[in-house]
Write a sequence for this structure.
């Protein structure tokens, strides 16, 4: 695959398409370029191909047409370099391992020393507010805390690209809003990290994003790309501001197409 010269471009999709072997056109002609340091949300109805795009970015699924560059190289190469990390809706913590061992697992798989694993796991557990729970087992944590631990595990390998597929969908509204703020804090401290975030929740997308990609139902195409030009840190008052309401309306309108 051709190597892009622009290292600041984290993901480049050109006419990206995916037709599954059974004939389902999941993604069609998607053109999106994502730069370093963006927080980009994908919103769209169920089945519009959001997860399929993520699978292609992580190299778990191949495009059937068009091109896709991740970190200026192929998705598989980017994954090999540990440049990408993934957080799913359900936490994927191993129930028989303590939180610190779960969080250090990606480093263990790479052969890192025990000391490095512990240091790095403690660093990210502090970032997500779980430094007092290093020895706990997953079953001892609430849903929100398990999600924090999953985020810590994704951050432990210092990814340049963090992909999050509806990470807060199973949480109650208060916990969801708390985690949104915490995630923005973590992201804004690391200007090199790009976050791609899937959500069905337009309010969540507007609060978090620098840009929002609105997708259409099958076949999944881009209906609109909206910029949210509101500076960070975003205060809680943003959620009830007229500007917020206006962007929510624009995105909701685009979703109807
Ligand atoms: N392995 C597969 N084989 C065949 N069709 C598939 C496969 N995976 C997904 N699809 C279909 O591709 C379309 C897009 O699926 P995808 O999971 O990417 O959508 P989504 O937008 O992430 O949906 P949701 O919001 O419900 O998670 C859907 O119609 C789905 O049924």
């Amino acid at each position: 695959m051709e190597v892009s010269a622009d290292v600041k471009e984290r993901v480049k999709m050109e006419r990206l398409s995916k037709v599954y072997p059974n004939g389902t056109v999941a993604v069609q002609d998607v053109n999106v370029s994502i730069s370093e340091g963006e927080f980009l949300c994908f919103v769209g109805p169920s089945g519009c191909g959001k997860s399929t795009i993520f699978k292609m970015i992580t190299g778990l699924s191949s495009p059937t047409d068009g091109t896709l560059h991740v970190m200026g190289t192929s998705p598989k190469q980017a994954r090999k370099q540990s440049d990408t990390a993934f957080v799913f809706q359900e936490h994927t913590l191993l129930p028989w391992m303590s939180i610190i061992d779960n969080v250090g697992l990606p480093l263990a798989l790479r052969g890192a020393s025990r000391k490095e694993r512990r240091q790095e796991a403690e660093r990210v557990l502090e970032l997500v507010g779980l430094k007092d729970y290093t020895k706990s087992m997953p079953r001892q944590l609430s849903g929100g805390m398990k999600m924090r631990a999953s985020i810590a595990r994704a951050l432990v390998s210092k990814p340049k690209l963090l992909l999050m597929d509806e990470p807060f969908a199973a949480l109650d509204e208060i916990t969801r809003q708390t985690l949104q703020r915490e995630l923005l804090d973590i992201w804004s401290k690391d200007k090199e990290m790009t976050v791609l975030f899937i959500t069905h929740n337009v309010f969540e997308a507007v609060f978090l994003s620098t840009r929002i990609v609105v997708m259409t139902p099958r076949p999944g195409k881009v209906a609109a790309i909206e910029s949210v030009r509101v500076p960070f840190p975003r205060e809680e008052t943003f959620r009830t501001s007229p500007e917020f309401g206006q962007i929510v309306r624009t995105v909701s309108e685009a979703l109807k197409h």
